[in-house]
Amino acid sequence: MSSQTGSHENVSDENLPSAQEDAHGAVAVKDDPFADPGLPPHEHRVQDIDEKAARRSERAVAFLFVVSMLATVGFIASYVAFPIDKIVYVWPLGHVSALNLALGVTLGIALFCIGAGAVHWARTLMSDEEMVDERHAVAAEPEVRAKVMEDFRQGAKESQFGRRKLIRNTMFGAVALVPLSGVVLLRDLGPLPEDKLRHTIWKKGKLLVNENTRQPLKPEDISVGSLTFAMPEGLEPEDEEFHKEIAKAALMLVRLEPKDIKDKRELDWSHEGIVAYSKICTHVGCPVSLYEQQTHHVLCPCHQSTFDLSDGARVIFGPAGHPLPQLNISVNKDGFLEAQGDFAEPVGPAFWERG
């Protein structure tokens, strides 16, 4: 029985496929179709052994980056040069906007050349030797982290980033210029507001016109305890800019007893107890329109911000951030109420307080 067992083992050993270890350390089993074949032998590229070929690849990559820079410049120039309504015929697209076509082509070339340059750089000049690294725990040991940093430094060295200055500099130029395309596109958001949000069309000498009758107002037109809405003279509902201007210049007039006015500046800027304040709430810009004559409080119907018109229109309740701006008024030689300038502060929500 023993001899038979030994003979059986000998036969089994002879029939087992033999194991072989290749140059990369991978174990392959002879005649086993499922064995790990390991990594193929590394083949050097022509750029690895011929510096002239490497220089040619470097110039090719730099050329792509330069083309990207020129395309970005062309994008900006097209934005300035082509009017928005210019239509051209381009086969096979037909009639298209010259501006859209120029912007699309130049931006596409700029982005493509950056990508193509990076790919060509990686395929011809960076190290292409494959490496095998065993998986490890997420929390790496200090030795492993040190090895990673060393591999990173080695990879940076092998990428020739420091040596190939032409590639490096042109890549920096291309990557730095491409974002300018987005900056230029911001121009489509409209012209810069500059200081337009800080001013209205009120100015010295502008008559106060009743919003309902369209007639200039006199002091006797406004009784104590009443609320009157006004707008600047010369502003008509038929005007193209009417809604934009009235949204900033809308005015409300209230006549108080001068003895009830607590704020000195408010008293100085009033006429016989008639005070003029912006109608635009300083919370989100709703029209303030609810007046309580016993308390001299005015209420915004949107979020219930409440202002005391006898005390500089200060906020006494609600989410509004600051008082309603006051308009300095007086009476001209003809007896009509007129403005002495613009509002003391920008009207509407308190964006200007964040400056």
From TrEMBL:
<dbReference type="InterPro" id="IPR036922">
    <property type="entry name" value="Rieske_2Fe-2S_sf"/>
</dbReference>
<dbReference type="GO" id="GO:0004497">
    <property type="term" value="F:monooxygenase activity"/>
</dbReference>
<keyword id="KW-1015">Disulfide bond</keyword>
<comment type="subunit">
    <text>The cytochrome bc1 complex is composed of a cytochrome b (QcrB), the Rieske iron-sulfur protein (QcrA) and a diheme cytochrome c (QcrC) subunit.</text>
</comment>
<keyword id="KW-0813">Transport</keyword>
<dbReference type="GO" id="GO:0016705">
    <property type="term" value="F:oxidoreductase activity, acting on paired donors, with incorporation or reduction of molecular oxygen"/>
</dbReference>
<feature type="domain" description="Rieske">
    <location>
        <begin position="248"/>
        <end position="338"/>
    </location>
</feature>
<dbReference type="GO" id="GO:0051537">
    <property type="term" value="F:2 iron, 2 sulfur cluster binding"/>
</dbReference>
<dbReference type="Pfam" id="PF00355">
    <property type="entry name" value="Rieske"/>
</dbReference>
<protein>
    <recommendedName>
        <fullName>Cytochrome bc1 complex Rieske iron-sulfur subunit</fullName>
    </recommendedName>
</protein>
<keyword id="KW-0001">2Fe-2S</keyword>
<keyword id="KW-0679">Respiratory chain</keyword>
<feature type="transmembrane region" description="Helical">
    <location>
        <begin position="60"/>
        <end position="81"/>
    </location>
</feature>
<comment type="function">
    <text>Iron-sulfur subunit of the cytochrome bc1 complex, an essential component of the respiratory electron transport chain required for ATP synthesis. The bc1 complex catalyzes the oxidation of menaquinol and the reduction of cytochrome c in the respiratory chain. The bc1 complex operates through a Q-cycle mechanism that couples electron transfer to generation of the proton gradient that drives ATP synthesis.</text>
</comment>
<keyword id="KW-0249">Electron transport</keyword>
<keyword id="KW-1003">Cell membrane</keyword>
<dbReference type="Pfam" id="PF19297">
    <property type="entry name" value="QcrA_N"/>
</dbReference>
<keyword id="KW-0812">Transmembrane</keyword>
<dbReference type="InterPro" id="IPR014349">
    <property type="entry name" value="Rieske_Fe-S_prot"/>
</dbReference>
<dbReference type="GO" id="GO:0046872">
    <property type="term" value="F:metal ion binding"/>
</dbReference>
<dbReference type="InterPro" id="IPR017941">
    <property type="entry name" value="Rieske_2Fe-2S"/>
</dbReference>
<keyword id="KW-0560">Oxidoreductase</keyword>
<keyword id="KW-0472">Membrane</keyword>
<keyword id="KW-0479">Metal-binding</keyword>
<feature type="transmembrane region" description="Helical">
    <location>
        <begin position="166"/>
        <end position="186"/>
    </location>
</feature>
<dbReference type="InterPro" id="IPR045603">
    <property type="entry name" value="QcrA_N"/>
</dbReference>
<feature type="transmembrane region" description="Helical">
    <location>
        <begin position="101"/>
        <end position="122"/>
    </location>
</feature>
<keyword id="KW-1133">Transmembrane helix</keyword>
<keyword id="KW-0408">Iron</keyword>
<dbReference type="InterPro" id="IPR005805">
    <property type="entry name" value="Rieske_Fe-S_prot_C"/>
</dbReference>
<comment type="similarity">
    <text>Belongs to the Rieske iron-sulfur protein family.</text>
</comment>
<dbReference type="GO" id="GO:0005886">
    <property type="term" value="C:plasma membrane"/>
</dbReference>
<keyword id="KW-0411">Iron-sulfur</keyword>
